[in-house]
Amino acid sequence: MKVPKTKLEDVARLAGVSMATVSRTLSSPSLVREDTLARVRHAIQALGYVPDASARTLASGRSRTIAAVVPTLDNAIFSHAIQGMQGVLAANGYQLLLGSHNYDPQTEIDVVRALSERAVDAMVLVGADHAPETLSVLRQSGTRTIITWALSNDYPCIGFDNFEIGALAARYLFDLGHRHFGMISGISRNNDRARLRTEGFVNTLRALRAEIIPGAACEQPYSFAGGRTGLRNILRDASTRPTAIFCGNDVLALGCLFEATALNLKVPDELSIVGCDNLPISAEVTPGLTTVALESSLLGKKTAEALLRWLQDGTEPGRTEMPISLIQRGTAAPPS
Questions:
Q1: End-to-end CA distance of the chain
Q2: Residue 3: alpha-carbon gap to chain centroid
Q3: Residues 225, 227, 230, 234: is their CA dihedral positive or negative?
Q4: Could you name the CATH architecture of 162-294?
Q5: How far is CA 42 from the centre of its chain?
Q6: Which of 218, 235, 224, 234 is nearest to 184 (CA)?
Q7: Would you kindly state where each structural domain of the chain is located, as residue ranges?
Q8: Each residue of 95-136: pLDDT tens digit?
Q9: How far apart are CA 198 and CA 170, in angstroms?
Q10: What pLDDT score does 27 carry?
Q11: What are the backbone angles phi and psi of residue 45, rounded to the nearest 5°?
């Protein structure tokens, strides 16, 4: 026998509140008193009430969903940002939908189109490099769009100066006294963050009248294996063994550190390593990883807050540059 579907008025009756209060609890819980919120949520749970999302979207013109499309879910740095975003959105009655594209432009186009068809209220993208068709889908659907992790002159953005990340690492290692440099970058194709970090490192060294050693730079996938392979390639191909290597993120840097240990290269006595991200594991390894810290969780929270202001009072986000800082630990020291 088919069980009658629970309605909004059933929840209101059980909770002893008006239908408007139930609706407000679902859409803007922060505006409802705690005792009332508890009664309504108890009634929803007791009755097994499931809101009709399509009906709410038609009535309000809002789906109360935000979409975030990230390069990969296999990198903790993106997970921290997503968690920060989710916490703020959930507290304000919004749901977060996720998609990933593994750095493939066509996959990103398909994911963005599918999410746009769900009438999301806003879209969060990572980086400034996107296929023209991706941006065209967002314009045609009228979806509010914000760029994260990078800075953009064309869209609202909350991100890091990725050129400066590379520059900061270069100045730090140069000031320690290093003159023989190497770099293990992420794959720069379709990844403006990787490309700009490399440009910042290389160009800053040139300004300091230094260079990366010929054969001492390579691109690798963001993985421990990539960092290991990168160091082996540099040791094989470099005209002179570098005394310092900058890695495009902490995962590459940790792989480089693991491989150096396996090869009996003493870190930092024989090789200094600097990463980028400041993942929690970076402080737990021995020696601790020196790295450029990015506040990824804070980036997620600020992105969510900016989107909520945009949706609620029409204040379009501008251009927000997130801070970076160098965390000195045990993998970098003056050359022996």
A1: 80
A2: 44
A3: negative
A4: 3-Layer(aba) Sandwich (3.40)
A5: 35
A6: 218
A7: 8-51, 63-160+296-322, 162-294
A8: 999 999 999 999 999 999 999 988 899 999 999 999 999 999
A9: 10
A10: 72
A11: -65, -45
Full-model pTM: 0.83
Tens of pLDDT, residues 147-190? 999 999 999 999 999 999 999 999 999 999 999 999 999 999 99
CB burial string 123-132: b at 16+ within 10 A, e below: bbbbbbbbee
Q: Does the fold of domain 162-294 match that of domain 8-51? A: no
The answer to which of 33-37, 93-97, 271-275 has the lowest mean pLDDT is 33-37
Please say whether the dihedral angle defined by the alpha carbons of residues 122, 124, 127 and 130, taken in this order, is positive or negative.
Answer: negative
Contact 169, 208 (CB under 8 A): no
User: If you average pLDDT over residues 60-87, what whole number do you get?
Assistant: 89
* Confidence at residue 2, expressed as pLDDT on a 0 to 100 scale: 45
Q: Order of strands, edge to edge, in the sheet holding 122-126?
A: 95-100, 65-70, 122-126, 144-148, 157-159, 319-321
pLDDT at 57 over 60: no
Query: What CATH architecture does domain 8-51 belong to?
Result: Orthogonal Bundle (1.10)
Show the tokens assigned to 187: 């794959």
What CATH architecture does domain 63-160+296-322 belong to? 3-Layer(aba) Sandwich (3.40)
Tokens representing residue 84 in the block: 């920060």
Amino acid identity for residue 247 in this structure: C
Q: Give the tokens for residue 319.
A: 């251009």
pLDDT of 153: 92
